[in-house]
Amino acid sequence: MFIHLKELIKFRELLFAFTNREIKVRYKQTLLGASWAVIQPLSLMIMFTLIFGFFLKINSEGVPYPLFYYSALMPWTFFATSLSFGSLAVINNGNLVTKIYFPREILPFASIIAGFMDFLISALIFIVMLVIYNVPLTINVVYTIPIVFLETIFIAGLILFTSALNVMWRDIKFVIPLLIQLWIFVTPVIYPLSKVPEKFRPFYMLNPMSSVVENFRKVTVGGLAPNWNDFAIALGISLILFIFGYKFFKIKEKVFADVI
Amino acid sequence: MDNIAIKFQNVTKSYLISRMKYGRFSDDFGIFLGKLIGKNRHKTLQRETLLAINDLSFTVHEGECLGIIGRNGSGKSTILKLISKITYPKSGQITVNGKVGAFIELGAGLHPELSGKENIFLYGAILGMKKQEIKGKYADIVKFSGIEKFIDTPIKRYSSGMYARIGFSVVSFMDPEILLIDEVLAVGDQNFQKKCLDKMKRFVKSGKTIVFVSHNMDAVKLICSKAIYLDGGKIKMQGETKTVISHYLDDVKGSKNESQ
């Protein structure tokens, strides 16, 4: 595990070069460029506000609907874009994998960093919204850093599995979009966590994204400290997933060039 | 000259022929189920293996230039892939001492949407160069490629010859201890080919180890002191370049006569 991380550090320049490429290429020949990074959570936010806020009147715990949804959609979009791009990262670079040696995990990891850049862009809009709705941030906003860190570990662990499995079975390519669609319903994006029945909570919180989204909302628009208990559980699950994912990826990596 | 740069000891590499088509989950799962139940219902599925490299042993000393010749499918490129750790052997041992730079196929690693300049940095990073290093050599790289005029154009608008130039220009400015070259002279005009050969000769002179795979016998003769003639994944002959090449050419002629 540490050998792999050490090699990754040795190849960090390549990681940045791939990230750079992914960011540059993603919005090439698009009219709106990087604003797509904002349009995605923004349009979902408008839809959710309209349907779940004004039509269905979901309890947003006193937070204005646009903020309630946007604060959840930010970490959610980071998750969804990184997962969908990252899972394809190895197979989309088949020509490189069969010709040049480098630690292959650089490819999915570059997708995560590129997704994180989008996340930062979407954060700018969030700040504008906070000003408009006059919702002050508290010191607790610093906890977004460990929360996003936790999310990154979780995404990385997941992507190490999906991107490697994709090399062997292209079925994964179809599974991922479906999975993301379904996943949003078992994550407190549309509704607050308090709507989940008490007896289902322990199972519900096994999904690290539940902890990420709920805590992210809590420390930003809620102005409160995160629920550390949920955080610790999610971090534990994510770390285990990451370690096993890395092992799995490194074993499968050896046949990538032959199978891809 | 006594230091060993590359050593193959009884190396065998086989490919699973059924793996050469796209993997499908249903196939693999079917086999898994078949094993579970204890009968092999998937007899129709090919599980044949192809021996690309069969019990191969050879040594390349530091500063030597080894040419590898042979018909298509004789395992030439597989050897390069094994040296650069893109693929792994089924059995046997491979020792490689020194930093490997592979120039295996033109254009692998170049991104069509990016400009010539962006690609020089990307490709340099893929080949293991540091950003600072590329910056320092950038002017020379562009000059060598001879495409100063189009350096800010996305390379998807380049001709295939220009693709090759930009690729080789970056490669020729990297500083590996062992250089692997596979059929690079197939593209590019006479003038550029001559430039490449000169560059390769300079590599040899500066004491670098080179493994050169080519169908261009003149180029092999010009650069390599030693050669290996591969046939069906085995060494048919090895020794001084001239002798090996004339033997190979006789074989090619012979088989032509047979088929007539």
Automatic annotation (TrEMBL), chain A:
It is a multi-pass membrane protein. One of its GO terms (biological process) is lipopolysaccharide transport. GO terms for cellular component: ATP-binding cassette (ABC) transporter complex. It comes from the Bacteria. Residues 32-252 form the ABC transmembrane type-2 domain. It is found in: Cell inner membrane; Cell membrane. InterPro entries: ABC2_TM (IPR013525), ABC2_TM_bact-type (IPR047817), ABC_2_transport (IPR000412). Its main location: membrane. Keywords: Cell inner membrane, Cell membrane, Membrane, Transmembrane, Transmembrane helix, Transport. GO terms for molecular function: ABC-type transporter activity. The chain crosses the membrane at residues 31-55, 67-91, 112-135, 141-162, 174-194, 231-249. Belongs to the ABC-2 integral membrane protein family. This is Transport permease protein. It comes from Candidatus Curtissbacteria bacterium RIFCSPHIGHO2_01_FULL_40_12.
TrEMBL record, chain B:
GO terms for molecular function: ABC-type transporter activity; ATP binding; ATP hydrolysis activity. The keyword Ribonucleoprotein does not apply. SMART domains: AAA (SM00382). This is ABC transporter domain-containing protein. It comes from Candidatus Curtissbacteria bacterium RIFCSPHIGHO2_02_FULL_40_17. CDD domains: ABC_KpsT_Wzt. Pfam families: ABC_tran (PF00005). Residues 36-257 form the ABC transporter domain. Belongs to the ABC transporter superfamily. Keywords: ATP-binding, Nucleotide-binding, Transport. GO terms for cellular component: membrane.
